[in-house]
Write a structure and sequence with these properties.
The structure is a single chain. The chain is α+β, with helices and mostly antiparallel strands. It contains 27 helices and 27 strands. The strands form 8 sheets. It has a 7-stranded antiparallel β-sheet. Helix 8 (about 435-450) runs antiparallel to helix 10. The longest helix is centred in the middle third of the chain and has 27 residues, at about 350-375. The chain is globular.
């Protein structure tokens, strides 16, 4: 089963925690910069010496491969088949590797193993994918017959050993470290239009089938389990001999699940936490089970206090350990605060701020007193984060949940589990959590509850002294104790009880939230200049790094792309009139020349058409035509309708090429793409729309609005009114989904079925719809509703496609198309938000954090380049070249 997307933006989400360790400034993949130890390969190398057939060692990512030095037909691996996996723990991995390596070499079986023990621990950690967890060694038998032979021989030498359960596999007999599954052996991938490379296997008739690493055992339809056994009926999922009926999975991680269940005898609803053995190995091989046992002990100590869930039961079922807890049907504190915060409104009132403060005061008074009582019992909570604090909406009392990081200093095994931004920064400090960490965390959460930018503390040490006062003033709380309480908590200058007293007893007055301030005249250009200086000061020539620091999505798939790579950065610098260092240009040119075009999708944001368009604007016709030819003839050219990933964006690039080169082939290509879009379109009373596997997306990046922009420009170039008419119906379709969440304002979700998450941005949301609607001239009350929705000072990120810069970008568009300066005033509010919240000032220039706020990115879509371009456009309201605004000038 593949998880259903809430929005297409989810496709570019990558867990950024894995990109934090190598650099304090930029996202860099941790393992790429890791140097594995030699403790495992040193065991295998001597075994390779003096063999009749030579073997070689090859390291790739987390794996050390052992394979024949001379590839022949006799030792060639199949594309797919049955694989054998061996799991292990740190204590036995060396012994298992020696035994398995000897078996493999004696039988001429190729294999791979985790590079070192730290890598093994990483692959059994909580954040590792459940479908890939635990696979310490993989053996590649060349045939089904050899598979049966080798797995039985492996059983003979491993039957008494242990390792973590491999969720994607079937266990062989009763051996707790030996598993098998059917899947790809020789790596074969299928390029997707998003730029991701998806592993595939082949059906007997040659069809490519995704090789999903699911966290459960499954076989493709054309084969079956070679060692079938009767499986239990899973019509109902029960635990502890039927005592508990599992109703719903509340969450999963590699360590186990959390289940909403019913106690069958009483009908009582409970929460059951699961722990898998030999997962999340820490100091002294303490695993997830040991941690859950310790959490249970802590919860029992807190029993009857109302501060944490009550414990009803604990048991072992099969090999896993379970704790049954009280079910507390309440939202976490982040949701309660987000629902009430006036900073998410475009026109917040004193009354809204007053209401929010009362909610805030009650909830945090309860949280502070609760933490103080837990500390009084000699317990460090350890992992304190907003999602671990639940709030009863009626009483505003809180409970702390997920106490897996809790311990009693001097009594229990110390824990180091924590959420990065809610712990005192670790430089030069002890690794174990402390009472001070808890106090710091609750202070940070109090700031996070006003607006969630806590992660930015890794980039700016003045977060609590410079940014926090602005947050407090903007929410209207300058004359409350909030600022003093938070700053003293994060500095550990007051206790939680003292903080609660201040919060409850201090007099206060509420002021008008978010008082607009005009930008100083030269400020936008100064910021643009300083951002250009930052970008050009931080290019890299070492091949282990991308040319510029970019979002992990760009690092993984295409570091040369327009949206997330070097091409967009260099283009933006050039468009804004800044010089690009020659070494950076040279590396970029070399990388473009070396691109393997068959490995790059055609789309505008991530693929060849976007790069081609930038090359065209830079005057590099040869490269532009080479890349655009690939975009027009890729197997993925017609894979998606959208502007960012599909035909609309490719069509726009072709129109740009036609306008500059006057080559009719590009206009023909654009028309052909439009005709395909026309054939694939559907229409109802709302307008024209496109589906992807039955799913409709809304907005500029992936929905109808982006397609409408292409159709408008095609109509202007060809003179055919039908394209404009079709495009107008498309943008009206998106507009029809507008919902009034705030009086007078309209916003949309990423898809029509979503009724809980609404977006405001260019990529998904109101801003992208406005960007196209104004180019169609659809001024009026409905457009005013969407326009009002983007009149914001606050957004989660600074970037242009999903952040504050995007609001300003669209409002500058609105000014250009209306000549009404009120839109520049509105844009200034968003730009002031960037200045107050996100502008980072360094000796080498100004920057903004990328998405998730942990580190800086320089790319166009999420980083400094896009923000720089927006400040530059505010100083010089130029055309948006990627909307082909030149056509509007031509038709004026």
């Amino acid at each position: 089963m593949v998880k259903k997307l809430r929005g297409m933006r989810d496709l570019r989400h990558i867990d950024k925690i894995a990109y934090l360790r190598p650099s304090k400034r930029f996202y860099e993949h941790g393992y790429t910069h890791y140097q594995p130890g030699a403790e495992l390969i040193s065991l295998v190398r001597p075994m390779l010496e003096g063999r009749a057939e030579p073997w070689k060692v090859h390291r790739s990512d987390v794996w050390t491969h052992i394979l024949p030095a001379n590839r022949t037909e006799s030792n060639k691996l199949p594309i797919q088949g049955w694989k054998i996996h061996v799991s292990a723990i740190a204590a036995n991995c060396r012994n298992l590797l020696v035994k398995v390596a000897a078996l493999a070499l004696e039988n001429n079986i190729q294999f791979k193993f985790a590079n070192d023990t730290e890598t093994l621990k990483m692959m059994t950690s909580k954040r590792w994918s459940r479908g890939g967890s635990g696979k310490f060694i993989t053996l590649y038998p060349p045939t089904d017959e050899k598979f049966r032979e080798i797995i039985e021989k492996a059983y003979a030498v491993l039957k008494d050993d242990i390792g973590s359960y491999i969720l994607s596999d079937r266990r062989y007999k009763d051996c707790r470290c030996l598993y098998y599954r059917y899947g790809g052996i020789t790596s074969v991938t299928k390029l997707l239009y998003t730029s991701e490379k998806q592993p595939v296997i082949f059906s007997p008739d040659g069809e490519q089938i995704p090789d999903h690493r699911t966290p459960y055992f499954e076989t493709p339809p054309w084969t079956s389990d070679p060692f079938p056994e009767e499986q239990p009926d899973h019509a109902e999922f029960t635990l502890n001999n039927g005592r508990y009926l599992v109703k719903e999975a509340l969450g999963f991680s590699n360590t186990g699940g959390v289940y909403l269940s019913t106690e069958t005898a009483s009908g009582r609803q409970v929460v059951i936490k699961e722990a898998r053995p030999y997962i999340e190995l820490g100091e002294d091989d303490m695993d997830a089970v040991a941690r859950l046992v310790q959490e249970e002990k802590i919860l029992r100590l807190l029993g009857g206090t109302g501060l944490a869930p009550e414990i009803y039961d604990s048991f072992r079922d099969w090999e896993n350990y379970y704790v049954v807890e009280e079910y507390f049907p309440a939202p976490d504190i982040r949701l309660v605060m987000l629902e009430s915060s006036p900073l998410v409104d475009t026109r917040p009132s004193i009354a809204a701020s007053e209401k929010f403060y009362n909610i805030y005061k009650k909830a945090f008074s309860s949280a502070l007193r609760g933490m103080a009582r837990i500390h009084d019992q000699g317990i460090v909570i350890g992992d304190v984060s907003p999602k671990n604090i639940l709030v009863d909406r009626d009483s505003m009392t809180v409970r702390f949940i997920d106490l897996e990081g809790a311990f009693r200093p001097g009594i229990d095994e110390p824990q180091r589990l924590h959420t990065p931004e809610f712990r005192i920064p670790s430089k030069g400090r002890e690794l174990n959590s402390t009472y001070d960490d808890d106090t710091f965390a609750i202070g940070v959460i109090m700031m996070y509850a006003i607006f969630p930018i806590a992660a930015m503390q890794f980039l700016r040490e003045d977060l609590f002294t410079a940014v926090l006062p602005r947050l407090v003033a903007d929410v209207g709380w300058a004359n409350t104790p909030a600022l003093a309480i938070i700053t003293q908590l994060v500095d550990n200058k007051i206790t939680c009880s003292q903080a609660a007293d201040l919060l409850e007893q201090s007099e206060y007055t509420i002021e008008q939230p978010i008082k607009r301030r005009p930008l100083e005249g030269d400020m936008p250009m100064e910021i643009s200049d300083q951002m250009a200086r930052f970008i050009t000061s931080n290019y890299r020539l070492d091949k282990i790094f991308t040319l510029f620091p970019v979002d992990p999505f760009g690092q993984r798939d295409n570091p040369s792309s327009f949206g997330f790579g070097a091409t967009g950065i260099i283009h933006t610098l050039s468009t804004c009139g800044y010089d690009i260092p020659l070494p950076a240009l040279e590396r970029q040119r070399n990388e473009l020349a070396a691109l393997k075009l068959e490995e790059i999708p055609p789309g505008f944001l991530v693929g060849t058409s976007g790069i081609a368009w930038c090359c065209l604007l830079a005057g590099d016709r040869e490269t532009a035509e080479r890349l655009l030819k690939q975009a027009n003839h890729s197997p993925l050219t017609h894979a998606h309708h959208s502007l960012y990933f599909g035909m609309a964006g490719i069509g726009m690039a072709n129109l740009a090429a036609y306008l500059r080169l006057k080559d009719g082939r590009y206009l023909d290509a654009a028309v052909n793409l439009a005709m395909t879009l026309e054939k694939q379109s559907k229409e109802n009373e709302r307008g024209v729309y496109w589906e992807e596997d039955g799913q409709v997306w809304i907005g500029f990046g992936y929905g109808q609005s982006g397609v409408a922009l292409f159709l408008l420009r095609l109509s202007q170039v060809t003179g055919e009114e039908k394209w404009r008419a079709m495009g107008k119906k498309a943008v009206l379709y998106d507009m029809s989904w507008g919902r009034e969440l705030e009086p007078g304002n309209l916003t949309v979700a990423a898809n029509p079925e979503d009724t809980s998450t609404y977006e405001h941005y260019i990529e998904e949301g109101s801003a992208g719809i406005v960007k196209v609607a104004i180019r169609y001239g659809l001024w009026g009350s409905e457009l005013d509703g969407f326009m009002g929705d983007i009149d914001r000072k606050y957004a989660s990120f600074a970037g242009v496609i999903f952040g504050l810069a995007g609001f300003a970008d669209v409002l500058i568009d609105a000014y250009r198309y209306s000549n009404d300066k009120k839109y520049l005033t509105m844009a200034d509010s968003s730009l002031q938000g960037i200045i107050d919240l996100y502008l980072l000032k360094f000796d080498d220039g100004y920057a903004t954090p990328g998405e998730n706020l942990f580190r800086i990115t320089c790319d166009y879509a999420t980083g400094v380049a896009g923000v720089m371009r927006t400040f530059h456009r505010r100083a010089n309201p130029a055309e948006d070249e990627f909307c082909l605004d030149e056509l509007d000038q031509l038709s004026a």
